[in-house]
Amino acid sequence: MSAKIIDGKAFAADVRGRVAEQVAQLKARHGLTPGLAVVLVGEDPASQVYVRNKGKQTIEAGMNSFEHKLDASTPEAELLALVEKLNADPAVHGILVQLPLPDHIDEAKVLAAIDPAKDVDGFHISNVGLLATGQKALVPCTPLGCLMMLRDHHGSLSGLNAVVVGRSNIVGKPMAQLLLRDSCTVTIAHSRTKDLAEVCRGADILVAAVGRPQMIPGDWVKPGATVIDVGINRIPAPEKGEGKTRLVGDVEFDSAAAVAGAITPVPGGVGPMTIACLLANTLTACARAAG
Ligand code: GUN
Question: What's the 83 CA to ligand 1 centre distance in angstroms?
Fold first, then answer.
């Protein structure tokens, strides 16, 4: 293996430490404590784990954590009323509604109801537009974490060829916008892209965010490229015993690490950065509210 392994766990701990210092300063100077409200509708096991971790790390950073767990059958109007209440609550600086929502709830309607100044996910149309037009926005946490690791590794990203595989609103599209803002030449590839392998081979920066286990093999990676693997997929691991599973990314790690210059592992790469950036966004939202 030749690639440098980018340690997202250590990087995220560092970001959280810096956020905690600034939270302490905000408290001392302005008597303000940032507050993050997380809303979970239903009992999706993965979402429950995320929400638990978010709450724990929010408190560790010295912020207030408000958790709202609603039944899966909660009517849309009730969720919208809760969002309105959180919008009006001065102790709440950040609001995150955990996705996916149950089918009977219109996700776009709920995201549109969140006050853009408290939209720490950066999913509100207003923040999407601000990011796309190069203005001050709250930026989605996972791509923001990826960007931080890329900047740390490369210094300047200017002029690099970046390929983002995946076009979701949560990762692919905002990732492309952030890379463009840093003057990369950006390609967004997806399931209909012709000769995806060849497109990937042109990437100095390859971001995989498709949600398909180990879809990108090492021979799609340009020698020396930086590979950011956003995928978190659970696959059977019979070698660990019957019924056991393990986590893998969207990239075939061993073959990619043999040719890449740097690569994020799964787990321990992008994942821990997402919550660290959520805390950073909550701090930003609180500091902006303080003026
Ligand atoms: N579900 C999976 N990732 C995310 C995220 O970043 N934000 C929210 N709100 N829900 C998610």
Answer: 16
Which among 57, 118, 119, 121 is annotated as catalytic? Answer: 121
Report the alpha-carbon distance of residue 19 to residue 289 in Å, rounded.
17
The residue type at 271: G
Which atom belonging to ligand 1 lies closest to the Cα atom of 170? 6
Ligand 1 pocket list (CB less than 6 A): 96-99, 121, 141-142, 170, 274
- The answer to whether residue 185 is domain-embedded is yes
Q: Which domain holds residue 35?
A: 31-116
**pLDDT tens-place string over residues 59-75:** 999 999 999 999 999 99
pTM, full prediction:
0.97
Annotated binding site for NADP(+): 166-168, 232
On whether both 74 and 194 belong to a single domain, the answer is: no
Distance from C-alpha of 250 to C-alpha of 84, rounded to nearest angstrom: 37
Q: What element of type H or E holds 27? A: helix 8-30
Q: How many A from CA of 76 to the centre of ligand 1?
A: 18
ipTM > 0.85?
yes
75: CATH: 3.40.50.10860
Cα 98 to averaged position of ligand 1 atoms, centre (Å): 5
Nearest CA to 186 among 159, 154, 150, 152?
Answer: 159
Q: 145 and 267, same structural domain?
A: yes
Asked if residue 156 is part of any domain, the answer here is yes
Domain-located, residue 98: yes
How many structural domains compose the chain? 2
